[in-house]
Amino acid sequence: MSGNAPDGLPKGNRVWADGCYDMVHFGHANQLRQAKQFGQKLIVGVHNDEEIRLHKGPPVFNEQERYRMVAGIKWVDEVVENAPYVTTVETLDKYRCDFCIHGDDITLTADGKDTYQEVKDNARYRECKRTCGVSTTDLVGRMLLLTKNHHTQDEHIEQHVERARSLSTDNVAMSPWTRVSRFIPTTTTILEFAEGRPPKPTDKVVYVTGSFDLFHIGHLAFLEKAKEFGDYLIVGILSDQTVNQYKGSNHPIMSIHERVLSVLAYKPVNEVVFGAPYEITPDVLDQFNVKAVVNGFRDRESSIVNCPLTSIDPFAEAKRRGIYHEVDSGSDMTTDLIIDRIINHRLEYETRNRKKEKKEADVAKAMNLIKVEE
C-alpha cells in the first residue's frame, strides 16, 4: 500500500463508511467513491430498519433492499448488515478497519448527538466532500410536493426553497446540510463515475433503455440479468422530456444528469447514452455494435392515456434482427411503487423531514454556521 488519500494523509488498508443508504442515490455513491480513495478495501456498514426508525424516522426502503443496493455499488468491497447507528472504535476494530470516512455534513442521534464523536475523539475519523444538490430528504420532498420545480430554470429555485421550507415547523433557520439546492453537473463528475473504457473487439455488447428514475432494487436486478447476455452493458437513459411525455405529472423525479450518475454507480454498467431515443433505431444498434437488446417484462411502468409514444414499439428493430430478449428481474419494485409508499405515508415522512431539519438547524446554530433570522 502506498500513496496518500485525498486529504493528504496516508491511505488505510481496510476503511469504513456507514449510513442508512435509504433511497440510494448518486450522492451516496459519490461519498462511497471518495471513501474508496482512502484505502485499499471499502467496508460499508448499513443500519437496520429499527435503528433508522429510532434515530431518524421510517425508512423508505427496508433493510434487505438497502443492503442489496449498497452491495451493488462498484466502489464497495464488503457490506456489514445491522451496523450500529453510532460509530465506535469497537466497531472499527471488529471489522479490522483503520478509520472511518464520512461526508462533511453531520449525522445526529435521536437526542441530537454527533454519531461520529467517539471516532473523532480517537483520531479514527476522516472526511470527504458531501455531494451538494441531493439527499434522501430532498428526494422525498420532491415527491411530497408533487411539483416539477426540480426540472425548472434556476430563476425558479426560490419557489421550491420556500415550499420546502413550509414543511418545517421551525421557519427561523434551515439546516445547511438538508436543504433544497441545485445539483450542478460537470464533465468532471461524469468522468469520476464512468468506467472510461470502450468495448473490446471481442466483447458482446448489450443494450437496455429506460428512465431509471429513483434508481431502485428492481432496476439493479434487471441490469444484473441484462449483463448476463454479454460482456459490455450500455444503458440508454431517456431524456426528461421523453419521460414526462409518457409518464406525465412531475416525472421524472430526478433530472437526466442525476439519473445518469445513479446508473453509472452500479457494477453491471459499462456505459450510458444521454437522452437516448425512445425508439431503438438501426443507427443506435449499428453505432454501438449491439448484439443483444434486453427488456424486463416487470419493468413496464404506467403511461399516461393517449400518449403518442405508447403506440410505438421501441423494440421493433431489435425484434426484426432477432436480438431482442425479455427477462424477469425477480423484483416487483417500480418507481411508481416508491412514490406510492411516500404518498401513502405522507404525514410520517413530512414529520421525519421536519424533525431532521430542526435537529440539524439547532446544531448548526450552535456551531454558528447559520444566522437566526430576526
From TrEMBL:
Pfam families, A to Z: CTP_transf_like (PF01467)
Any GO MF annotation of the entry: ethanolamine-phosphate cytidylyltransferase activity
GO biological process, one term: phosphatidylethanolamine biosynthetic process
Pathway(s) per entry: Lipid metabolism; Phospholipid metabolism; phosphatidylethanolamine biosynthesis; phosphatidylethanolamine from ethanolamine: step 2/3
InterPro entries: CCT (IPR041723), Cyt_trans-like (IPR004821), Ect1/PCYT2 (IPR044608), Rossmann-like_a/b/a_fold (IPR014729)
Keywords linked to the UniProt accession: Lipid biosynthesis, Lipid metabolism, Nucleotidyltransferase, Phospholipid biosynthesis, Phospholipid metabolism, Transferase
EC number assigned by the record: 2.7.7.14
Keyword Nucleus in record: no
Gene Ontology CC annotation, any one: cytoplasm
Family statement: Belongs to the cytidylyltransferase family.
Name of the protein in its database record: ethanolamine-phosphate cytidylyltransferase
